[in-house]
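Hi R.,

As promised on Friday, here is the backbone we talked about, encoded as structure tokens. Could you run it through your design pipeline when you get a chance and send me back a sequence?
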């Protein structure tokens, strides 16, 4: 398929030889290019593993992944990856780090963007003297300066103060709009992602549970409230009873009986939390996220 930033088919990764730990299993999905995608899931779900596979830092133990129409290794110059621990050279100064970024990316380096993002940092400060949030800012300056087609960001906002978070989220979104950059951003802060991301991947227990346009995923669900009653024929994600009142998150399979139920649209956060509380709910991929054909070897 064309126009995909990431395509995975049966993708899996098991760490270790003796004490094997399966981090991802049988993940098939497609992320169209140009999206800002939230990658969400509980601790240990497999988000970092998925990002590392897409960045070409890990090789799958099963299945395949393609990035920007080629192998992750083949796309390396077109990808920027910011890992959770933001590895930077401790001895270099901020100015040296930006200079090194320019030398390593001579064809596409965007010094204006990189310097604008790094601006609040003292140029002569050594990386080892920066705070966690300041290092994140420098790592994002390097990533954006590279002018990548795909940015893979592992919890990029977790140690930034609210003002810096707001500013850098704005920069990321402007970048996506102006240059069509695809951004995949893992985070635990669901409210922050709700306004910023137009695409969603929910990973849980090493599997993809939800994938697709956030709006389409939300509108595929309904919150029903009423007297305890029959929820058939709808697919039930979660149902809870308080006294005689039943509240259920369902995927409607046909018209909902509005004489029996109050019907509202769930927020993205309500929807995600319900899926996390109910791991047996069936997965849902919208048509654009559905990778039906096996991609060629990674
Ligand atoms: N290097 C490793 N060796 C062995 N197991 C690992 C390694 N890295 C991750 N794992 C395991 O793989 C699983 C997925 O980890 P991963 O870091 O991908 O999760 P995550 O969704 O990014 O979690 P978090 O939200 O806590 O960052 C976990 O069970 C973890 O313990």
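Update: got your reply. Pasting your designed sequence below so it's all in one thread:
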């Amino acid at each position: 398929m064309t126009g995909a930033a990431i395509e995975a088919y049966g993708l899996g990764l098991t760490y270790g030889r003796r004490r094997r730990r399966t981090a991802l299993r049988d993940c098939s999905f497609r992320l169209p290019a140009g999206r800002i995608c939230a990658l969400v899931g509980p601790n240990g779900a497999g988000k970092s593993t998925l990002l590392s596979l897409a960045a070409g830092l890990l090789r799958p133990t099963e299945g395949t992944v393609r990035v920007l129409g080629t192998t992750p290794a083949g796309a390396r110059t077109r990808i920027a990856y910011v890992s959770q621990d933001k590895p930077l050279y401790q001895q270099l100064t901020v100015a040296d780090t930006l200079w090194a970024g320019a030398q390593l990316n001579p064809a596409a380096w965007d010094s204006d963007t990189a310097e604008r993002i790094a601006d609040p940092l003292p140029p002569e400060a050594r990386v080892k003297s920066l705070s966690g949030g300041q290092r994140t800012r420098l790592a994002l300056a390097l990533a954006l300066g590279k002018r990548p087609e795909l940015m893979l960001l592992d919890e990029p906002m977790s140690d930034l103060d609210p003002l810096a978070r707001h500013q850098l989220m704005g920069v990321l979104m402007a970048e996506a709009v102006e240059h069509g950059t695809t951004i995949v951003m893992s985070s635990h802060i669901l409210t922050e992602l709700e306004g910023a991301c137009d695409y969603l991947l929910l990973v849980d227990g090493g599997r993809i549970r939800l994938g697709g346009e956030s709006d389409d995923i939300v509108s595929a669900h309904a919150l029903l409230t009423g007297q305890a009653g029959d929820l058939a024929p709808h697919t039930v994600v979660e149902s809870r009873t308080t006294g005689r009142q039943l509240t259920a998150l369902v995927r409607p399979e046909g018209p909902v009986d509005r004489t029996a139920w109050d019907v509202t649209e769930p927020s993205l956060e309500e929807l995600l939390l319900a899926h996390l509380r109910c791991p047996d709910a069936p997965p849902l991929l919208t048509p654009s996220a559905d990778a039906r054909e096996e991609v060629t070897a990674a």
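One thing I noticed while checking it: The first helix runs from residue 47 to 55.

Thanks again,
M.
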